[in-house]
Amino acid sequence: MEIATQSIEGGFADPVFNAQAVFRAVMDAMAQPGSVRPLPAFARPPAPLSATSGAVALALCDNDTPLWLDPALQISAAVKSWLGFHTGAPLANTPADAHFALIAAPAEMMALDGFSQGTQDYPDRSTTLILQVNNLTSGTPLLLEGPGIEKSATIAPAQMPRHFVEQWKQNNQRFPRGVDIVLAAAGSIACLPRTTRIKTMEA
Amino acid sequence: MTAQPTDIAAYNFAYLDEQTKRMIRRAILKGIAIPGYQVPFASREMPMPYGWGTGGVQVTASIIGPDDVLKVIDQGADDTTNAVSIRAFFKKVANVAVTTETAKATIIQTRHRIPEHPLSVGQVLVYQVPIPEPLRFLEPRETETRKMHALEEYGLMHVKLYEDIARHGRIATTYAYPVKVEGRYVMDPSPTPKFDNPKMHRSPALQLFGAGREKRIYALPPFTEVVSLDFEDHPFEVQTFDQPCALCAAENVYLDEVILDDHGGHMFVCSDTDHCEKRREEGHRGHLAPETPLALEKTEPAQ
Q: Do the Cβ atoms of B34 and A176 come within 8 Å?
């Protein structure tokens, strides 16, 4: 298919209510870290952008939010023009300029501290990372604690970034600065806001 | 449009345009990720004046969907002007189901009370906030209060509470009583009576705060530590009432004083009307309740 056609098709069929449904799933997942929220495939972006992360991008991004794409997405002209057509979001020059980062290959991604961490005065000026993971059940289990979690929660996202537990501990230590993560699997999402602590699992 | 039994144009669902909703939604997500931190947002003009809950209305409009059930309370009551007009507003612009029952609502927009009925996981409580900055009356400069939050410098607030003790022998703040969230940010719980502060602590519901005029959104995720500031020798205490509700005989609830005549007659009744009505339906009767159990006037959601 031509890039022009690919970039126009595959947006929300029902922009207002689809965006609301995606946002509510993200909001509930962010409010209860580690909980897995179902998310129907509202969007059909060109590969390698997944339907779930594409839908999150459509729901949250617009011309106010510079986007950063990881190298796997960056090389795809179809993905760039699809995001450009549907969201109008400019591409960020560096990860530190991005409000949102779309990561198709989390296992190969750069360090979390390369993204915008916000400032001590304005910790909200940080990058929100949208990680495309294969699923939320077959990876190394992470035992989670923190606000939004009654006692503890467990999630096992596959293909997480290298040294993720160590990197996340450092992210916690930067609080209130730090990045937040949306884990986009096929048909479901989960979130790790910067307040969530990962307890080391006993072997 | 999918199964929308309405002729309201979808682009205008819940009044706000889509770009505004995205902006507010992003602010809400940041607020949830940094509990107690006030996220600046580009507050819009709403078809009601500042002070009538424009912040709460914008938050509700950004999260509400066709499946939600909305309850709106003003000082605990479902049937006062502010509550009725906001409920009517959302019925009109979003065509959502409305209720007065706390347990049935998915979104509860509130002005200055937390319902007596315990909230549950999945419910969202949206507060209307006039002054989001707890330090504002102590330090008028935004540049300074921002620095104080950044450096976690909250000594001034303790000095204020201490001066209360020096002057009155106790902490005299009774509403908008400052809280500390997850041991980090000092937050204004909005002008709720301090009676409601303990309900914020580890509440199963998501709590969102919107301040329209001051252009701030902040949030408390469920199960978040919310501690009212106090001193070891002057621990935090909530208001107590020496008599139960005059209509439903409820104890340990927040009561409003109602003046009955110009000879000093007065009664104390539940501030939470839904809670009071439920109790009277169950047969609880206070000392001023009508002799014969009248058919209770149901506060029908406004059209």
A: yes
The answer to whether B32 and B206 have CB atoms below 8 angstroms apart is yes
CB burial of residue B234 (10 Å; 0-12, 13-18, 19+) = middle
- B10-228 topology per CATH: Rossmann fold (3.40.50)
CATH 3.40.50.11310 placement within chain B: 10-228
Question: In whole angstroms, what is the distance from residue B157 CA to residue B167 CA?
Answer: 16
Sequence-distant (6+) residues with CB within 8 A of B240 are none
pLDDT value for B10: 52
Nearest to A20 among B65, B185, B221 (CB): B65
Question: Is B51 a known active-site residue?
Answer: no
Give pLDDT tens digits for B4-24: 555 555 557 999 999 999 999
Q: How far apart, in whole angstroms, are the C-alpha atoms of residue A128 and residue B220?
A: 19
Is residue B53 part of the annotated active site? The answer reads no
pTM score of the predicted model: 0.93
A27 touches chain B (CB under 8 A): yes
Whether the pLDDT of residue B193 is over 50: the answer is yes
- H helical segments located in chain A: 3-8, 15-31, 51-60, 71-74, 77-87, 164-173
Of B2, B28, B206, the CB nearest to A17: B2
CA nearest A151 in B: which residue?
A: B223
CATH number of domain containing A66: 3.40.50.11310
Domain that holds residue A62: 3-199
Closest to B63 measured CA to CA, from B111, B104, B31: B31
The Cα–Cα gap between A84 and A121 comes to 31
User: For residue B113, what pLDDT is reported?
Assistant: 95
Which DSSP symbol is given to B194? G
| Structure confidence by residue, pLDDT tens digits, B22-37 | 999 999 999 999 999 9
pLDDT score of B1: 43
Closest by Cβ to B223, choosing from A120, A122, A147? A147
Catalytic (active site) residue B169? no
Name, in order, each residue with C-beta under 8 angstroms of B143's C-beta and a sequence gap of 6 or more. Answer: none
Burial class (CB in 10 A: 0-12, 13-18, 19+), A94: exposed
- Cβ of A16 within 8 Å of Cβ of B10? The answer is yes
Classify the complex by whether its ipTM is higher than 0.85, answering yes or no.
yes
